[in-house]
Amino acid sequence: MYKGGYTGKVLRVDLTSKTYKEEPLPVEVAQDFIGGAGFTVKYLYDEVPADCDPLGPENKLIYAPGPFTGTTIPCASRMAINAKSPATGAVGVATTGGHFPVEMKRAGYDVIIIEGKAETPTYLWIKNGEVKFRDARDLWGLTTSDTQQVIKDELHDQNIRISCIGPAGEKLSRIACIVNERRVAGRKGLGAVMGSKNLKAIALRGDQQLAIADHEKYDAARKR
């Protein structure tokens, strides 16, 4: 059982079949790999074949914030994104900050795993445990700034947090980035992996609060 710091849930999304499911985050995984890059490397190693095409449907795009993300600890809103890198052919960890990592925790997830490939340009709308596969054909070709604004307008909520790609990712540039607001996961060409899956964006909204296991010890550590 998780007493604090984690939601205890993994969201697995299959773009090919347009299905999703929630899985428990094993306690031993949290103990051994902590969060963020550790989680993404663990799932990448276990699930992605070493010889797969980085731009093929077997590759997976994995998001994971850290255990302090969503708390009042300063500068803790960080997350790792990982896939087999099209730039290096190896592990492709990139990190980013901003509001998206916190919103991912508030939406209920420690890890999001994106599998397969959408038939047409798609974006994901994730809100408190529900995932919708939305048409992104009108977004294809837009910059990341325009993409984020159009999605917010379409969903009638200016506080939605969005992780997306621009034309470079769509064209499978091996140096393409993934952007949320003005923050960038800029290493290893992960924007191309997102583009190869016909995934334009992930939009998040959540209202869950992250539990703290021991408030007294937490406050003492935070004030150091």
Structural notes for this entry:
The chain is α+β, with helices and mostly antiparallel strands and 224 residues long. The chain is 25% helix and 26% strand. The chain has a single domain (9-207), classed as Aldehyde Ferredoxin Oxidoreductase,  A, domain 1, CATH 3.60.9. The chain contains 7 helices and 12 strands. The strands form 2 sheets. Strands 2-1-6-3-4-5 form a 6-stranded mixed beta sheet, with helices on both faces. A 6-stranded mixed beta sheet has the order 8-7-12-9-10-11. A hairpin with a 4-residue loop joins strand 1 and strand 2. Helix 1 crosses helix 2 (37-47). The mean pLDDT is 95.
Topology, pairings included?
Layout: E1 9-14, E2 19-24, H1 27-33, H2 37-47, E3 61-65, E4 79-82, E5 94-96, H3 100-106, E6 111-115, E7 122-127, E8 130-135, H4 144-154, E9 161-164, H5 167-170, E10 178-180, E11 183-185, H6 190-196, E12 199-205, H7 215-222
Parallel strand pairs: 1-6, 7-12
Antiparallel strand pairs: 1-2, 3-4, 3-6, 4-5, 7-8, 9-10, 9-12, 10-11
Helix pairs in contact: 1-2
